[in-house]
Amino acid sequence: xxxxxxxxxxxxxxxxxxxxxxxxxxxxxxxxxxxxxxxxxxxxxxxxxxxxxxxxxxxxxxxxxxxxxxxxxxxxxxxxxxxxxxxxxxxxxxxxxxxxxxxxxxxxxxxxxxxxxxxxxxxxxxxxxxxxxxxxxxxxxxxxxxxxxxxxxxxxxxxxxxxxxxxxxxxxxxxxxxxxxxxxxxxx
Amino acid sequence: xxxxxxxxxxxxxxxxxxxxxxxxxxxxxxxxxxxxxxxxxxxxxxxxxxxxxxxxxxxxxxxxxxxxxxxxxxxxxxxxxxxxxxxxxxxxxxxxxxxxxxxxxxxxxxxxxxxxxxxxxxxxxxxxxxxxxxxxxxxxxxxxxxxxxxxxxxxxxxxxxxxxxxxxxxxxxxxxxxxxxxxxxxxxxxxxxxxxxxxxxxxxxxxxxxxxxxxxxxxxx
Lengths: 188, 221
Prior knowledge:
heterodimer; A: alpha/beta; Rossmann fold; two-stranded antiparallel sheet; globular; B: alpha/beta; 42% helix
C-alpha cells in the first residue's frame, strides 16, 4: 500500500518536522510505503487553464514536470495526506498549485452529483485524501472554512476528502495522527 | 473631492482574453462612467512573477481593489492566493481600502463560487480591508473572454448586474451592499448538454475524440 504525503507548508519549523515524523511512523506501522514530498522544493508549473489535458492530450497535462509525476502518483496511491497551513481559510499556494494540477485526473464531461453539476471521474477509483490544516491560532473563521473547503473538494474528487485542523500547541503530533488514522479506518 | 483610484487585478492565468478580464473591464467601465474612478489594471500571474514590487506599490496607492478571478478546484487559483499573501504582508495599513471580487466558474451554477468568496471575505477581514461584496457568475464558458458589451442579449442581464455592483461599490449606506450578486448565464441542463457536446466537437477537430476517456496513469485502479 502506498501513501503519498503532499507537504504544502511554507515555514521550516519544528512542528512541521514533528508532524512529518509522526505521520511516517504511524503509516509505516499500518503497512504503508510512504513518500513525503515537500512541494516548495519542487518545480511545479501553475495550471494555466488551457484544458489541453481534456482535449488535446486526454488525461495528461501539457507540462511534463513534477506536477504531472505527482498526479500520476496520486491516482496510484491508496492514501493521500495533504499538509498545509490555514491561509485565509484555504490552502497554501504550494498546496493549491498541486491541487490545480489534478484536473487531468477527471473528465471534462458534466454530470449531476448531489443535485449539482460536477465533472465525471476518469478513473475507476480515487484514493481518500486527508487534508491537515496546521493552525497556530485559537479557533477562528479560517479554520471552519478550511474544513468546509475540503468538503467541497470531496464532491469533485469522487471519494473521501476530509480537512482537519491540527493545533501543535494543544495536541501532540502522534495523537493527532492516531486520531486521523482511526477516523480513516472507520470511513474505509 | 479627489477621484477614487481603483486597482483591477485580473486573476486568470490566460495570457489572451479571459472571462475574468471581460467581467473586470465591464465593472471598471461602470465605475469610471458613474463615479469617475481612475482604474489601474494588472494581470496577476505576469506581475507576481515578473514584478511583485510594482503590484505592491499599486496595491498601496489604491483606494479600492477589485479582484476578478476564475474558480479553480473550489477556490482561488494558486497564483492568486500567492498574490493576496504578498499584498497582505507588504500592505500599508495606515490607509483603509475597499475590496470586492468578481468571480466566474465553468459550471453552470454560481453556487460553485461561494466558497472562494468566503475565502476572499476572510482575507479582507484579516487584512483590514472593507469588504464590498461579490459579483458571482456561473457558466463562465459562455463568455470565454468576449467583451460583455459585444454579446448582445445573452449578456444583457449580466451587464445590468455589473452596473448594480459598480453603483453600490462605494455606497456603504445601501442596504445589502455587501451581499453577493449571483448570475447564472444559461439553464443548467442546456449548459450541460452543450458543454458536453462542445468537448467532443473540439476533440474531433484535434483528432483526439476516440482518446477522450483515456486513463494514461492506470495501474492499480
